[in-house]
Design goal:
mainly beta; three-stranded antiparallel β-sheet; 36% strand; globular; binds zinc ion
Length: 139
Amino acid sequence: MITPEEARRKPEPSPDADSAALWKGLRDGKLLLQHCKACGHVQYYQQAICRRCGSDDLVHRAASGHGTVHSFSIVHRAPGPAFKDDVPYAVLLVELDEGPRMISTYTGGKPDDVTFDMRVRLVCEPISDTISLPRFKRA
Ligand SMILES: [Zn+2]
């Protein structure tokens, strides 16, 4: 059973073998993308192999941190007690300049300011000693 106190605590990402480098990079203020040396594909969601060609010859490179809002949604009803104080907030589907798309949230302004194709820039927001979340503000 979950206590009310636990329900108010936000879930934290728990890095695994595939995502450890990504989370360390975010802590250092960098968004690491996986570049496939075999086919050139660039991916955000960290995996042991390239999603396009299956090669395991992947190398991390820091993203520029720049992107465009491809789509977004404004959340008015918190998905749980932990997010009650955050609403309303904007969930973004950001298309990074390097190509991959990632889901994130908007920071540094009102959710109503968000528009399609708005240029955004990465902000690494620390939530604990080991975890920083990738969020985006207006560029
Ligand atoms: Zn590949």
